[in-house]
Write a structure and sequence with these properties.
single chain; alpha/beta; seven-stranded mixed beta sheet; three-stranded mixed beta sheet; 9 helices
Length: about 270
Amino acid sequence: MDDGCTESGAKITIERRGRILLIGINRPYVHNRIDPEAYHALAKVYYDYDHDSSLRAAVLFGQGENFSRGVDVDAFTELAKTGKPTALVEEELDPLGKIKCLSKPLIVVAHGDTWNMGHELLLTADIRIAAADTRFGQDENTHGRFPGGGATVRFVREAGWANAMRYMLTGDHWGADEARRIGVVQEIAPDREKALALGIEIAERVAGCAPLGIRTTLASAHLAIDGAENAAYRELDAQYGALYRTNDFLEGRKAEAEGRLPIYVGN
C-alpha cells in the first residue's frame, strides 16, 4: 500500500502514515451503515493490511458523525436469507473475525452511534478507544433479529455473561463510561478528534515494538480462546439467516417504517 488516501467517494477509505494504516468507514449519509459492497471492501483492506509486511498496526474509525449504526438491513436482507450473508472471496479477510482473525494489531476508535455490527466491528479490535459521546447498542432483538456478527461470543467474553445479556436481551443502549466499566473499551477521549489522535498514538507505540513478538503475542492469545469459540462462529450465519425468514423480522421492519412499537408473536 502506498502512502495517501483513497478517492473521497470510496465506502472504505485508507490512508497510510508510515507503518500505520488508517481505515475509515465512509457512508456518513446513512450513518456509516455497512452494505455488502462496504463489507467486502473492508475485507479486502484487512487482507491487504495483514499481508503487507511494512505495515505494523491499523486504526479503524468512522467518517462523519457516527462510527457506524451497523448493518444496512435493506441491502443485506436477500443475502442474509440464504444463510451465507458473509461469504468471502479470495484475498478477503472477515472483518468480523468469525472465520479468521487478523494476525497484526487492530485498534478501533468509536464515536457517536456505534450499534450492532458497528459494535461487533469494535469487539474484534485488540485495543478499543471511545469518544465521550459514543452511544453503544446491540439492539437486534428489538427488531426481530439477533446479534449475528459475533457479539454473542465476544461481548460475553469481554464484558461477562450478565453484563452482555443486560444489553443484548433488552436492546438498551449504553455510553462510554459504562463500556469502560464492563471492559469493552480501554480508553475514553473527550471527542472524536482526540479519540482518533489517541488511537494513532497508541498504534505508533505498537508499531515501535518488535513485529515478530507482536504477531506471536496475538497468535498465542488466539490459541487460548479461539478453539472454544469456533463452533459458535460456525453457526452464526445460518442462525442469522433463519431469523430474516420469520414473521417477527417482517413485523420489526414494518413497525420501524411505521414508527410504532412492534408486536412479536414468536414465529
